[in-house]
């Protein structure tokens, strides 16, 4: 009987290991593929028996992609934009989440239903009015009152993203408020009471006691906010389609590469660009775009994975 | 002045202060635009250097989207069908992965890190570029038996035809086999869309107390029984959360959003775009309501 049980466990362990390896391979496959493609030289793609390991290792693809994307500038801009929206969103969402979880007042549960509504309604619904709104940005007509002009044009600046993050109404902000609320709800009341007895006001309790204890939720929300802003095409394309940020560069990468390659061929209209080569450069570009995220993830991954267990995204 | 307030009053006052940033944002960046968007959908909107003018046209925009525009109906049905097909798959896969990731074995940390990688990578720009990558398709045709025809093998990691023939031969309903094969062919898409869901399920699994399993083990329950009698009921509220999240996520970036975007900013037909987005939101809302109702009847609550 025990013998049988043991065999059963072994069969399960082997099956599970195979399964896990399979799924991990499927997840890593696109990244591995891009790594392989990025270092392959052009001649290697025509040889059918070269699949993973390039015979002629080259940096040309990466160099082209690097130049086409204007990588250093783009990286800097994207990094600044993502980190500032990350900080603003986290602060605003944490405040709101704590307010909803612990400082309830009349009508706060109704307002929370509105938060849920912001998660459920597709952001495209607000796209056109927001565009017009940011095109002539004017809070309560103050600008018009003082300067006589009709608002400031914020399109193609980073302000729309910043303003929306600041007020926790940006990209997926509803979700972040929800995560914070669930987390603060799960924290023991005694901590708060002890802080109160020790003479902390509500704000001091929040910043000195609650926030330092909310690290798991903070890590999760910050990572999400950073990464989703980095990859976002919807808001970026709507409000700042001419700015040099990573998501726009990736979207434009195909056509930009085509132009560059055409110029390399000397503008000869009969010379055809090889679509495979074009695709190689595009893939190298994608690799460059996600590389910072992967490196970042390598650093925070342990922290993130551990924090997930204690975030109580669930409630 | 401040001293005269009771603690309760102080708390509710600071509560208002805490949510103030969000509330202001909600009013000016959500509620007002929402109302305007509804207004726009019934109007002909013209943007000029001084601002914009609106002219009420009734249901004209809605009619145009439904009967004149060539793509709207098709894309709307496509995305709804795609969602109905994918949601169960994503749900199943993410629950399964969460249980896998939750067990104890050597190298679990690494496995977890890899399983959450899609949360980071599979969104927006990268996913879009990924879908159109010629290199991916080339590799697929190479790895799946050297077929040089790129068009025939769009986006599948492995060839599943032989397996399909085998299953049909052995007497399993072809509809079901097709569904399964479709699932296998879309495995990457499913994996990459289940990052957050795995996370939610994992958090749920972690919150189940171990003593329940100990008791069950003493009573002689098998692993199968433990899963269906303990794990499944206790994570079932999360199934609802995940269903809703998956639906919203599947609608957040697809062909539909692209034509809505294009009709606004390429054809500059803001009215039409607003009408499309409202019909779209209503469809999403109805689906959410129906599925939410159906699932929540089955959900088990511990309290």
Please name the defining characteristics of this protein.
heterodimer; A: 315 residues; mainly alpha; 14 helices; 72% helix; 0% strand; flat; B: 303 residues; two-stranded antiparallel sheet; globular
Short note summarizing the structure:
The complex is a heterodimer of chains A (315) and B (303). Chain A has 14 helices and no strands.
General description of the model:
The complex is a heterodimer of chains A (315) and B (303). With 315 residues, chain A is an all-alpha fold. Chain A contains 14 helices and no strands. In chain A, helix 3 (71-102) runs parallel beside helix 7. The longest helix of chain A has 37 residues, at 2-38. The mean pLDDT of chain A is 82. Chain B is globular, with a radius of gyration of 25 Å. The longest helix of chain B has 35 residues, at 7-41. In chain B, helix 1 (7-41) packs across helix 14, helix 2 packs across helix 14 (270-298) and helix 12 packs antiparallel against helix 14. By secondary structure, chain B is mainly alpha-helical. Chain B contains 14 helices and two strands; from the N terminus they run αββααααααααααααα. Chain B is 74% helix and 4% strand. Classes of the chains: A mainly alpha (315), B mainly alpha (303). Chains A and B meet through helix 1, helix 3, helix 4, helix 5 and helix 7 of A and helix 1, helix 4, helix 5, helix 6 and helix 9 of B.
